[in-house]
Amino acid sequence: MAQLWGGRFTKETDKLVYHFNASISFDQKFYRQDIEGSIAHVTMLAKQGILTEQERDSIIAGLKGILADVESGRLEITEEYEDIHSFVEANLIERIGDAGKKLHTGRSRNDQVALDMKLYTREEVQETEKLLEELLEVLISMMEEHLDTYMPGFTHLQKAQPITLAHHLGAYFEMFKRDVLRLEDIYERMNYCPLGAGALAGTTYPLDREYTAELLGFAGPTLNSMDSVSDRDYLIEFLAALSTIMMHLSRFCEEIIIWNSNEYRFVEIDDAYSTGSSIMPQKKNPDIAELVRGKTGRVYGALMSILTTMKGIPLAYNKDMQEDKELSFDAMDTVKGCLALFTGMLRTMKFRSDVMARSAMNGFTNATDAADYLVGKGVPFRDAHSIIGRLVLYCIDKNTSIDSLSLEELKSICPMFEEDLYDAISLKTCVEKRLTIGAPGQEMMKRAIREGKDFLEHINAERKKI
Ligand code: ARG
Hints:
Blueprint: H1 15-21, H2 24-27, H3 31-47, H4 53-72, H5 84-96, H6 109-145, E1 150-155, E2 158-164, H7 165-190, E3 192-193, H8 209-215, E4 220-221, H9 225-230, H10 233-259, E5 267-268, H11 287-311, H12 326-348, E6 350-351, H13 353-361, H14 367-376, H15 381-398, H16 407-413, H17 421-424, H18 427-432, H19 442-465
Parallel strand pairs: 3-4
Antiparallel strand pairs: 1-2, 5-6
The protein binds arginine.
């Protein structure tokens, strides 16, 4: 058991207590960020004359050696250390001797862990954003391909009005676009460096916090040392954004599962993304979509967990905050995994445009347009609605569709119907006449695609600047 704080104690820590308290099993995940933070810290200490240049160089060489050895597998992170901070410091002292004992000058594990977690989360925000962008790219190219793939749009899971697949996919494009924007927003707000806040009240050493922040790519230092060590808002915001991403993915998965069902057959999920049954030879199940839908719960769980952990903590650092890690890491990994798999599944999925179009043609998806046709002939909309309602009932009784009726039959219900009705309520007209902003008509969708591409170019350019 290697601890940094043995001096004040006369007895060994109880073994169970040691393990209950230790965090090395999970905080080893940010060994790299811990070392990066320490390198910036000693660079600043030397600039301020708190360490000599030799001490700085020897510490940095030692830290880089530890990093290289951990990455190559030569140095194993073991449970004999309480946490990753102790592991790095103990190994440093072992490697370079007394200079290593100066690493922790003007620093506490409280500001250190606040920094590590922030550095780790900041990278996760970027990686998640990258995966979202890949998904958006796939969506845009599918939208371009399916501008005239007609399908029914639903409300209450009942056929409502015809749309195109491009339009349906475009709805998800908007959702994931907002997710990207949310991440960018979080990144900007969180990008302030807590290092130098000390345990809670800063330090008496003349630290240059602005310099440390700059070295680590932050916009500046955090402004209140108590808040610096106890703030996990950024993590809560990120988990909320991750939960929203999962909610979007889950809705999409739910639709794909429905579309892939024997009853719908709108899509066929690629064999590479499906699984079979141990007993029923005919089965090809959409397990990946189901798992993504299912994993949404654990991401929400991580958000609930940290909100609950934080709600009762008095200022400043309390050990409760160590609980910010395990479930957050799990949520971050889960979302990245789900995004990558989902994108692959979508990219390889086959859409059956014939089945979709057929489905759009029955179920009276053109009833609204038939009512609008009568409005065009001077009938007030409410009356037109009622006439078409009767017409639908008539069709249901005869097991047919509005556009299959003869003009005589139509006229027997309303004399204002003319030959031009057929064209007015064709699938193509129903979709293509919808040209208001955001509607499925091809011209409007082309504009939406252009704007989507501009968005992707813009965020790509922004990323290059970072
Ligand atoms: N393992 C701790 C955590 O994750 C590091 C900070 C320890 N600070 C302390 N005062 N005990 O929060």
